[in-house]
Amino acid sequence: MHSNFIQLMKNFLFLSFFSVFLFSCSNSDSISGTNNPIGVLKVQTYSVGNINFTNAKCVGIVTLGESTIQSTGICWSTSPNPTISGLHTTETLSSGSTSFISTLSPLTANTTYYVRAYAIDNSGTVYGAQLSFKTLNILFTSGGGVSDIDGATYGSVVLNGKEWMKKNLDVSKYKNGDAIPQVTDVTQWEALTTGAWCYYENDTANGPIYGKLYNWYAITDPRGLAPAGWRIPTDTEWSDLATFLGGDVVAGIKLKEDSTTPTWDVTTNYATNQSGFTAVPAGTGYLNYHLPPPVVPAAPAPTLADLFKGKTKVTYWWSATTTGNTASDLVWSRNVNSSSDQLVRSGVIKSSALSVRCIKI
Questions:
Q1: Which residues pair with 197 in a beta bridge?
Q2: Which residue in 101, 73, 100 sits closest to 87, CA to CA?
Q3: What is the average per-residue pLDDT within 323-329?
Q4: Contact yes or no for 86/104 (Cβ under 8 A)
Q5: Phi/psi at 192 (nearest 5 deg)?
Q6: Is there a contact between 199 and 353 (Cβ–Cβ < 8 Å)?
Q7: Among 259, 286, 258, which residue's Cα sits nearest to residue 200?
């Protein structure tokens, strides 16, 4: 009797444990958002990058299961453990792909967000591990803008108490209404000691995107290149702007137009436009170019590629300050480029054709 009772109890405990085990597995499998324990479908929230004050990019990776994936994407929230019931993207995996990139937008500046990649198949929704990030703080306020004598309008931003144009100058007249000559011939341009402008590669299509390129003599003409109430920034004002943005070594990142836009070369270093300055890669003309002296036989005529360089890769702006080296007779400029995070200070020859940004008086 005693042995029969013991055996009966053993059978009861075994059945009770097995029932609990079955219930636990069934309950886990039915919870949307829990990775399938047998690995049929797994999702990884791989990384978050290109973080701006209004958007970011997130990469998700899936391990394909036996069933067809219906959709993938990223969900995000200011609260932990976001789900597809809230803000989310929907992506379609291309044939043979196991990864995808989603743009998260619109976001609020200076705010912490939580993100999870997800995938949906016949078994339900599976989420990857949670990541978090913080959007950038906006460093500027919007200014009142300005119009030039041609009627073109320019938005503006206030940075460190100074109001800057957020677009390159595109004016063809001095402030008093006198025309600034457009010069397209390199020999004429080289001989100038008065103001002139040109388009990059003398192509009018570049004007609406990048503005005009001016020589130094247009910058300093007493009739005034900048609109009324505005002027060309000094070397010191450029330096103060760089300091406000964290120093020369990182200021370029914050000045360049967001790298998701099409104007910059695709290899452009990370760019946030955190300053609102919206720098575009206008290139340069005649920057390091001088016509060679006459030789026999005569040197071949320069090509546009000889004269204009760097569109989609770099932009230079004039300052109103010479380097003070009378032997070299150079002027201080600033540039940002696609291969550097920096705002670079350099001396340039006065016959260079560079972009202009103006600052409010």
A1: 182, 214
A2: 73
A3: 85
A4: no
A5: -70, 140
A6: no
A7: 286
- β-strand 359-360 against 56-63: which pairing, if any? unpaired
Residue 217 backbone phi and psi in degrees, to 5:
-70, -30
Six-digit token string for 62? 């899936």
> What distance in Å separates the CA atoms of residue 198 and residue 207, rounded to the nearest whole number?
9
Q: What is the pTM of this model?
A: 0.79
DSSP string for 185-237: -HHHHHH--S--EE-GGG-GGGHHHH--EE-HHHHH-TT-SSPTTEEPPPHHH
Write out pLDDT tens, residues 231-259: 999 999 999 999 999 999 999 999 999 86
The Cα 25–Cα 21 span in angstroms is 6
CB 313 within 8 A of CB 297: no
Q: Tell me the C-alpha distance between 244 and 209, whole Å.
A: 27
Residue 95: enclosing H or E segment and its boundaries? none
Q: Of 68, 60, 64, whose CA–CA distance to 90 is shortest?
A: 60
Q: How far is residue 142's CA from residue 278's CA, in Å, rounded to a whole number?
A: 13
Tokens in use for 193?
Answer: 């000691």
Would you give the end-to-end CA distance of the chain in angstroms?
Answer: 106
